[in-house]
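Annotators were shown the component list below and the corresponding predicted structure, then asked to write short factual statements about the assembly.
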Amino acid sequence: MLKGASCYKIGVSNFADYAIPSVFMLILEYGVDRQRMTRLNLEQHPDKLVEYMIFRNVRNISELTTLLKSGKISSVLLSENMVVSPLHLAVAVNRALHHEKNKTMKTKSINTEIILCLSPNNNISQSLTRFGLNANSYNVISLSVADSADSLSEKVQDLKNKIKADLVNDCRGFQYDDYEVYDVYGVSKEELSVDSLENSVVTKIATKV
Amino acid sequence: MTTLVSQGAEGRLFETTFLGRPCLMKERFKKSYRHPVLDEKLTNKRLSQECRMLSKCRSLGIRTPTVYYVNNKTNTIYMEYMKQTVVFKDFVDEHVAKGERRVLADLCFNVGYTIALLHNGDIVHGDLTSSNVLVMKRIDKYDCVLIDFGLSTNSSLVEDKGVDLYVLEKAFLSTHPNSQDLFDKILAGYCSAAHSQKVVMSKLSEIRLRGRKRSMVG
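Structure shown to annotators:
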């Protein structure tokens, strides 16, 4: 009987150790993630507000491309399969803002500069076709940079009206295409054996000459 | 929110955050004792060299800190703050004091192996000392991380590689006396992987006789 009692006790304590805190943590983590999901807080450029959104199953790609080409969208639209993580975005935006500040931009606007900064080389047209929208992309990441909260919310609202898709708050991260990322960024097998893909890609774009 | 971590002759290290993660800011400050033009040229060159090498070492399979942001106006690099690592020098001191030579021998072999990877990719570190190697614990073994590539160059010369090892030997044996056996382990690790190990080793013994600077007489 004693044995049985102790077993029961172990069972209860296991449950207490495992189930309750993990459920609690999940709620906590989800809550934190949801808040952190869309806003990128760049410490090095505190005067800028940067926000991103994930749109899945976009239904009006061709319409969006024409809008982009005529300059009617004031945010960056990226296809999701080439972006590894929010850090990847943040590093590119940070670099682009640095170029804007020092007037060393290679492209005409901050939006294209961000796309150029995402790319592993300095080829502007190549980076636009690779990272921007193309005819067969389904999932899109939008990135809006603004100086004030008002203009940011205006931009975000504008995007929500124009893009016909499911707006997702995916805390599992981006759905990127591993092999294409390896290929485009030239990530070697040795490199992946020492560190994560995210860190490798980030180092490559941050140290690009 | 930046706090000073340490200060060296070349620059200062600050701790900040980048997108909420711990980040180390390495700033190369202006030196008033140098001619301004020379100063700017040297600082810029070292900054860009460090960036290039940090990324190149990664592709050779050597763990280096992740670079987040390079500001070439203020000559600062923002990189990952690896809080889970210990400086190789402190690690050696601690383990020698405890008498755990076995762990150290394995680690030294690993350090030598990493240097061989570096030299195989024709990179010469230029300032290889036991304080420029970090030790990171993986689950069952220790990995090493190389830092401070400000003086590194691209070179396939045996002479440069030999000098690299010679500088390490000098620094290692003077900071950790009575540890010739550990340095031999580093060399053993180096020889296990380096492509041109025989030539470099004979060059090293030649450099030991004459010192780091080649005699330019005649």
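Statements collected:
1. The two ends of chain A are 74 Å apart (CA to CA).
2. Chain A has one domain: 35-206.
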